[in-house]
Structures are given as C-alpha cells and as structure tokens.
Amino acid sequence: MTPDRIAAALSELAELGLARRRHVLDGAQGARVSLDGRACLSFASNDYLGLAGHADVARAAIAAIERVGVGAGAAHLLTGHHRLHHDLETRLAGFVGLPAALLFSTGYMASLGVLPALLDRHAEVFEDRLNHASLIDGAILARARLTRYPHLDLDWLDRKLGESTASTRLIATDTVFSMDGDLAPVPALLELAEKHDAWLYLDDAHGFGVLGDQGRGILEHAGLASPPRRLIYLATLGKAAGVAGAFVAGSTELVEWLVNRARTWIYTTAQPPLLAAAVGASLDLIAGEPWRRRHLRALIARFRAGVADLPWPSPVSDTPIQPLLVGTSQAAVALAEGLRARAILAPAIRPPTVPHGEARLRVSLSAAHTPDDVDELLAALRELARG
To answer: Which of 239, 263, 288 is the last residue of a domain?
Structure first.
C-alpha cells in the first residue's frame, strides 16, 4: 500500500469504530492498574491467577539475573540452551503428563513452527472456525489445505475427515476459545483423531493454570491420564503463569523432530534464562495454591449471576473469559468508553477478531480481583444499561 492509501484506510477504520491504539501501563499488572496515567479497575488482562506481579516470581527472576545474567546470547542449538531452560522443559512435561516439552518464545511462534514442521502441501489441517489467528497462520505457512469447520460441529468434522485423501491429517483447536470462553470437547476430538489417523493439536493458552484441580490444564480437566502419541499440546506462559513464552509437549519423538525442523525455534535467540526461573516459581504457586482457582470460580459465578438481567447476552462460559455481546463495533466502543469514564477497563473486541455484528466486551476475571471488584463492574454496567 502507498502512504496515501494507508492514510485513507486508517480514516475508514476510525469511521467504522475499528481503529486501534496503544495504551501505556505504569507499574505492575494487576486488578488495579495505572493506565495512561489514570488509576483503573482492570478486567482487561489474561493474568488469570494474579501471578504477573507476584513477589515470589519476581524474586526468582532477580536471583537468576544475579546468577546467569540477562540475555541467552545465542540460539538454542548453539550455546543459548541454558540449564534453566532444560530443567523447566522437563518440569513442564511432567506437569501436564506428557513425555517431553520444548520451550518457544511465544505461543504464536510455537504454532508457526509446529504446523509447518509436520505438514506440507499434501497435508490437510482441520481447524475450528473460532481458532486463534496463530493456528490459522501456521496452517497457511505450512501450505497445507486448510479446512475450517463450524464451531464445535464434530459431525461436520467427522464427515470431512472421512472424505480427506491427504497424506497427513491434523485437527487443530483452541481448548478455551479466547473470545467466547467456551471449551472444546477434547475427548471427542481425540476419538476423531484416532478414528481418522490424524494428529490432534491443542492450544491450551487460556486453560493452562486455570483448568483442572491442580491447574494442569485441559488434559487434567478432561481426565486424559495417558494421552496418545498423536497428541500435540501447546500452552502459553504469559497468561495464568504470569511470565512469558510458551511450550509444546508431546512424545519424545515429536519434540526431537521439532528440534530439527521447527524454524521459529531453530532460527531465533533463546529466551532469557531468567524467564525460565520465573516460570518455575510460578509453577510452584499454580500447584501449591489451589485457592486461586477456587476463588476465581467463585468470581465467575458471581459475575454470571450479576449479568443475567443486563441487555447484553453473555454466552455460557465457566472460564475467566466472560463476553458481553453488544452488536456493532461503535456500540461496543461506546460501552467500553462508558466504563473507562468510570475508571473501569474492559476492552471492546471488534472485527476481524470476532465476526461482524458480534462486537463485544471481553471481561477477563482474575484471582487478584475481589468480590467487591466484580460488584463495582456490575453496578457500572447496570448504570450504563439504564442510559
């Protein structure tokens, strides 16, 4: 695009209520934050367990800096693979009950590395229509045939898998859908993968740390004690874990293949080892403080009861992601701005992130919130609903 066309397109986005801009956070992430210089009650982060600013996590990072410095200094296959990375991979694999794991810099980079490493133009990948963009982009980068199935429609998926003649088939899905908060039927998807000799790739970005009695994610929640070799598990470490990065877990052979073929792992500098140390401290808190998940579930129930009489539909979600369907982008922005005027943050989610006509507020609850925080949000929403 030329500069003039970019300027015109930006003006059009603004007219449609689709323009985005950055806000500046001062201080630590939490339930109460300073954004653009103003104190606000925040329902706008993925810090589901309230660990992003936890002192134990910070102390682990500081201790690692003092011991090993800051930067990794090289790619993993050169001299960047630190003992802290190696030990964390072993621990993460054990935590989710799989044989091996591999750290990536981000969840996005993980999917852009994994899918092209397993698929080519002779393969077919089947993706839920509401999957995260990283899963879609990974399939496109792999040059595989991309078939998107209607949200959670397993009969449709079963039929299309049966019709496929691809040399390799792979089902990819979010486990917790990031804009609706509903769950993928993982056991049923695994049955389809077994039936049709397909891989099953689970993106547990919003489930890891939250789902399961011990926070081990969707596999614990679904009761999959011995997942098969055809399973590929992804989780991110910047949401409930409160740090940064991601990992992919599966069979030993799968991880070894990714070490040799995942370009977004091979051709990049390893993450700072201090982040691995911080994640280790976060895992201690995820496993050792189940009260965080119990408190979070109580907040979810409180919020859902409170929005039942509001004019904006709220799809069923038992996760921290609680959408309020508003409709147009302009209406969603106006509602978000109404909350912001009351020093409450809840972002307006608009196309292309969600379909046209389904713009919404995305309320993200955290164990750092109190019942009074939720009540303050509900009171503001009721006031705005009255006009």
So the answer is: 288
In the block, residue with structure tokens 């802290």: 84
* C-alpha distance from residue 62 to each of 1, 56, 65, 80, 92 (Å): 45, 10, 5, 19, 21
Pairing of strands 246-250, 348-349: unpaired
CA 316 from chain centre, in angstroms, equals 18
Closest CA to 49 of 207, 263, 268: 207
| CATH value at residue 166 | 3.40.640.10
Looking at the chain, list the stretches that DSSP marks H as alpha helix, in order from N- to C-terminal side.
3-15, 55-68, 83-96, 107-118, 133-142, 154-163, 186-195, 218-221, 252-261, 263-266, 273-288, 291-307, 329-341, 371-385
Q: What angle (nearest 5°) sits at the alpha carbon of residue 243, between those of residues 65 and 264?
A: 90
Report phi then psi at 201, rounded to 5: -110, 115
- If asked whether residues 302 and 365 sit together in one domain, one would say yes
Task: Tell me the CATH number at 29.
Answer: 3.90.1150.10
Give Rg (Cα) of the chain. 21
SS3 197: coil
Give the C-alpha distances (Å, rounded to integers) separating 52 from 139, 241, 281: 31, 7, 11
Q: How far apart are CA 230 and CA 11, in angstroms?
A: 47
Which residue, of 230, 254, 288, is where some domain finishes?
288
Residue 14 lies in a domain: no
User: What end-to-end distance do the CA atoms of the chain give, in Å?
Assistant: 42
Tell me, yes or no, whether 300 and 265 share the same domain: no
- The structure's pTM equals 0.94
Query: Mean pLDDT in the chain?
Result: 95
What is the domain extent for residue 31?
25-53+290-385
Give the number of residues written for the chain. Answer: 387
3-state secondary structure (DSSP) of residue 223: coil
349 φ, ψ to 5°? -105, 125
User: pLDDT per residue over 273-308, tens digit each?
Assistant: 999 999 999 999 999 999 999 999 999 999 999 999
